[in-house]
Design the sequence.
């Protein structure tokens, strides 16, 4: 059923076959099988991977933005990392950092959680040494952080992560037509640790929900 949902929801997106297979198997293994859980999980994975096009966090904040815009974006995404500097210096320091390598940027912003080696990977963009220890070493019984970028362990770790999220925030109570639904907001907070991208996260989940309603995976428009 889940593979069918993936094909229906994302007809114009080339979800790699290996990822679709392992996501389907892992969602079943970790009991993400109700319409509500499937909807939220797939919407979250869709958002985190930028339409299933990337499975590793991108630290190229310079790109076509330029130093000032790229530095401002970096500061907005990782404000706490720059609190080591006086407030009046933070924009300047971000502009300096954005010109460095992706590894140097990750090592700075993720200094307290393992740096570059524990950057976001997989469908959920699993981040930080603690999460890697919990959802890769324990849940997947492997020790290689790089394995999270691969379909099997990336899918298993992402679904194990979402199962724990659902244990603390009941998806059955969600009103999918309400972008400020308190359960959804709690899920967003637990997934990302912030509320910065809540609008985008909701849009991704709502897109999945609308398609699932149309395909009659939901019995009614909740």
Sequence:
């Amino acid at each position: 059923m889940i593979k069918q949902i993936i094909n229906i929801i994302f007809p114009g997106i080339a979800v790699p076959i290996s990822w679709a297979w392992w996501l389907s198997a892992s969602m079943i293994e970790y009991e993400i099988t109700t319409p509500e859980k499937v909807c939220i999980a797939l919407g979250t994975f869709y958002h985190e991977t930028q339409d299933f096009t990337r499975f590793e966090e991108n630290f190229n904040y310079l790109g076509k933005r330029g130093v000032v815009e790229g530095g401002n974006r970096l500061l907005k995404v990782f404000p706490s990392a720059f609190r080591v500097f006086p407030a009046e210096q933070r924009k300047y320091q971000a502009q300096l950092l954005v010109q460095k390598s992706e590894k140097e940027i990750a090592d700075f912003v993720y200094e307290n959680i393992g740096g570059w080696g524990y950057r976001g990977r997989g469908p959920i963009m699993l981040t930080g040494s603690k999460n890697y220890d919990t959802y890769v070493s324990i849940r997947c019984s492997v020790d290689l952080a790089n394995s999270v970028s691969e379909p099997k362990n990336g899918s298993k770790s992402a679904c194990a992560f979402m199962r724990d999220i659902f244990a603390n925030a009941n998806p059955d109570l969600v009103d999918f037509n309400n972008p400020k639904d308190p359960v959804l907001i709690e899920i967003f907070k637990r997934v990302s640790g912030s509320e910065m991208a809540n609008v985008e996260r909701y849009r991704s989940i709502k897109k999945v929900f609308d398609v699932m309603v149309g395909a009659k995976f939901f019995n009614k428009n909740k």
